[in-house]
Amino acid sequence: MLPDEVIAAVQAAVRTRRRVTVVTGAGISAESGIPTFRGEEGYWRIGSQHYRPEQMATHATFRRAPEEVWRWYLYRRTVCHRAAPNAGHAAVVAMEATLGDRFALITQNVDGLHGRAGSSLARTCHVHGSLDQIRCARGCTPEVHPFPAGVADHDRDTPFTDDDRALLVCPRCQGPARPHILWFDESYDERFYRFETSLRLAAETGLLVTVGTSGATNLPNHVLQIVLRAGGLVVDVNVDENPFGRAAQRHGGFALVGPSGSILPALAEAIAAAV
């Protein structure tokens, strides 16, 4: 149950007819059992050396050890595919069903759970890419391709096989493919990660719901600041206190502490009642 003041403020924001935007981070997927990969699950051994996620998820490491990077991503993809969307993901789908083109989803998550829950591709900005897509490692085309069928699940100790090597290629030039992921030594852009689109959506937003994100990356922070400057209402949903929640409260918004699977369905109901 949401506090009455939250329901009233959310419904007032919805009735302005401005856009409702949801920004999601790793917290919503953690409720489906997907690790953030910044803990022990994220470390990776190449030979005798351990690598942190910030080292593995780079173009520099991919150039030096492409098969090890692929092996790490194949393991990550397997973990994500074994998880299922939760009530928080379903509530985001319900918000979109209520609002139609007044709704936008900006997700940092690459796990595909929003799409599997039913969020539409047209109204979703995957600002960090997707584990279910690849693109040419040589850049022969800007096209992004579906992940090739036939690649087997990979556990942590599964080797990179000749079958993996044969399948993980660019469909156009048959050269090596790379994961369609924004790496730590790369920058946001519009072509691959819908950077300008996300900022435009933020400028149209009257209600911003941030879910399970700590604000560790730049784009969600840009979105937050644009919405606040335009006088939009910000509601943060997180199991922990965080910069987004504090910013929301400083500007008349709300920090709702708890699991998204409990809070987002109540927010979706409040939004539906205001339409």
Any overview of this molecule?
This protein is of the alpha/beta class and 275 residues long. It folds into two domains: 4-34 and 85-128 and 188-274, TPP-binding domain (Rossmann fold, 3-Layer(aba) Sandwich); 40-82 and 131-181, 2-Layer Sandwich (SIR2/SIRT2 'Small Domain'), CATH 3.30.1600. It contains 13 helices and eleven strands. The chain has helices at 4-14, 26-30, 53-56, 59-64, 66-81, 87-99, 113-117, 162-167, 190-193, 195-203, 218-229, 243-250, 260-274, and strands at residues 19-24, 44-46, 49-51, 103-107, 124-126, 129-136, 144-146, 177-181, 205-211, 233-238, 254-257. Strands 5-4-1-9-10-11 form a six-stranded parallel β-sheet, with helices on both faces. Strands 7-6-8 form a three-stranded antiparallel β-sheet, covered by helices on one side. Strands 2-3 form a two-stranded antiparallel ribbon. Strand 9 (205-211), helix 11 and strand 10 form a beta-alpha-beta unit. Helix 10 runs parallel beside helix 11 (218-229). 40% of the residues are buried. The mean pLDDT is 95.
